[in-house]
Amino acid sequence: MLDRRNFLTASATGLAATLAFRGKLLAQLQDAPSSLPDRSLFDKNEEAYWAELRKQFLIPADEIYLNNGTVGSSPAPVLRAIFDGYTTTEKLDQQDPEDYPIWGYAAWNEFRDPLAAFVGCNRDEIALLRNATEANSYIANGVDMKPGDQVLMTDQEHPGGEHPWNLKAKRYGIVVKKITLPRPVKNAAEVLNLFNEAITPRTRVIFFSHITTFSGVVLPAKELCALARSKGILSAVDGAHVPGMMRFNVRDIGCDMYSSSPHKWLQAPKGSGFLYVRDEVIDRLWNTIATEGWDDTKIRAERFQRIGSSNVPALWGLRAAIKMAGNIGVERIERRHRAVADYMLAEMSKRGAISWTSPDAALRCAIVTVNVPPVPRMDLENWLWHTHKIRIRGADPNKLRLSTPYYLQKKDINRFLEKFDEYKREKKLA
Q1: Band of the pLDDT at 13, cuts 50, 70, 90?
Q2: Are 274 and 127 in contact, with CB atoms under 8 Å apart?
Q3: Rg for the chain, CA atoms, rounded
Q4: For the chain, first and last CA: distance in Å?
Q5: 195, burial (CB in 10 Å: exposed 0-12, middle 13-18, buried 19+)
Q6: I want to staple 288 with a disulfide (CB 3.0 to 4.6 A). Which of 141, 328, 333, 400 is the partner?
C-alpha cells in the first residue's frame, strides 16, 4: 500500500525528474543556434549550410535518423514557438473575456492564412485537423455514397487512408476496389493506365497517396486528378508525406480534397494536420464531428475544424515550421532531398539491394525503398539502433524504407552503409 510518506517521496521524485527533463530540454534549446544559417552560406558551401541546419534539431549528434517517413523531429524554432504558445494561452488573460485559447470554435485565420499560402489555396478551403488519418476519415465519412458505389485506390495506401473506406464499406455496403502498383513503378503512364482501366460506371471516388508510405513512389497526382475530373469522379489525395518534402500546390494538382500530416517532412508538431477541400466541393461533404457551426455553410471549411477544445500551441509550431521551410526555400529542400536519396539509392544498389524505388527521377524524392534478402529486417533494425544509434524503418521479411531528410550528411549515410556491411559480415550474410 502506498502510505503518505511513500506517496510524498514518489511525488517528490516525479517532480524532480520532470524539472530535470524540463531543464535539460530548455538547455538544449538554448544551445541550438538562435537563428538559421545565413542563406549566403548556401552559395559558398552548401554542405556547410546543411550541417549548420542540423544543429537546429535535438537529435543527438551521434544518432542517425532515417525515418522521417514515420515522424520527423521538430527543430528548435518550432519547439520555441510551441513554448511561446503555451506561455501566451495558459495565462488566460485574453482582452476579450469571451476569448478563450480553445481551438474548437474559432477560425484561427492567423494559422490558416500562412498554411493556405504554403499549399496554394485560400483559407476558406483549409481546415486545421490533427493528422492525415483524421482528415481521411472526414473524407470517407463525408462523401455521400450508396451501396455498390466504388472507391478506387492503390494497394500501397497507409492504414489511415485505406481503413476509413473499409469502415464505410462494412457499414454502408460501398465497394473498395484496389489496383496493384508495380514494384517499382517505372513511369507515370502505367499508373494512369491502371487507374483508367479500373474505373467503372460505379466509381465515385479516386483515392490515392501523392507519395505512398509503402514505397515512397511519387504518383502523378495532377494527371490522376484530371482523369477523375474528366469522368465526373471525385479525387481525394493523401498527402501525408508531401509538405516539407517537395513543392506542391493543391490548385495546380486539381484535386477535390487533400489531407496531410506536416509532422513528417515539414517537421511540425505532432498533432497538427490539415484537410483541403476545393470550394466547389465543400457543401457536398458532411461533417464527421458535430458541434456549433457544423451545418453553417457560410464558414466554409472552418466547420470541419470545429471539433471542440484542442492543442492550440501545436498551431503555433505549425506556423513556425511553415516559416522555417520558407526561409530555407522549398526548392532548395526538394533538391537536397532528391540528391541525398539518389546517393543512398545508388549505394544500396551497389550492394545488391532490390529497388522498389522508381527508376524515374520524377517519381521519387526523399524515400528510398529496397529489399535486401536474406537480411532479416527487424533484427537489422534492432541491431543498428541498439548498437550504433542508427534508426531505420522497414517491413518483414527484408524491406528497408530509408528516409533522407535535408539535414542528413553524406558522412551519416556512409556510416549507415558501413554498419549495414558490418552487420552482413557479422551475421555471415555477405
Answers
A1: low
A2: yes
A3: 23
A4: 56
A5: buried
A6: 141
In one-letter notation, the amino acid at residue 331 is E
pLDDT range class, residue 377, cuts 50, 70, 90: very high
Nearest Cα residue to 360 out of 116, 171, 186: 186
Q: Which residues contact 205 (CB under 8 A, 6 or more apart)?
A: 143, 145, 150, 151, 152, 233, 234, 235, 236
257 alpha-carbon distance from chain centroid:
16
Q: Vertex 366, ends 362 and 369: CA angle to 5°? A: 90
Torsion of CA 151, 152, 157, 161, to 10 degrees: -20
Of all residues in the chain, the percent with pLDDT exceeding 70 is 94
| β-bridge partners, 128 | 274
Q: How far is residue 103's CA from residue 311's CA, in Å, rounded to a whole number?
A: 7
**Amino acid letter, 236:** A
Least Cα distance to 370 among 380, 360, 357, 383 occurs for 357
> What pLDDT, on a 0 to 100 scale, did the predictor assign at position 31?
82
Give yes or no for a contact between 209 and 154, defined as CB atoms under 8 angstroms apart.
yes
pLDDT in tens, 142-158: 999 999 999 999 999 99
Integer Cα distance of 347 and 338 in angstroms? 14
For range 7-29, the mean pLDDT: 60
- For helices 188-198 and 221-230, the axis angle rounded to 10 degrees is 30
CA distance 127 to 282: 11
Please give the Cα distance from 262 to 249 (Å, whole number). 15
Q: C-alpha cell of 430?
A: 555477405
Give the 3-state secondary structure of residue 389. coil
Among candidate residues 127, 128, 63, the one with its CA nearest the CA of residue 314: 128
The answer to whether the CB of 270 falls within 8 A of the CB of 71 is: yes
Residue type at position 207: F
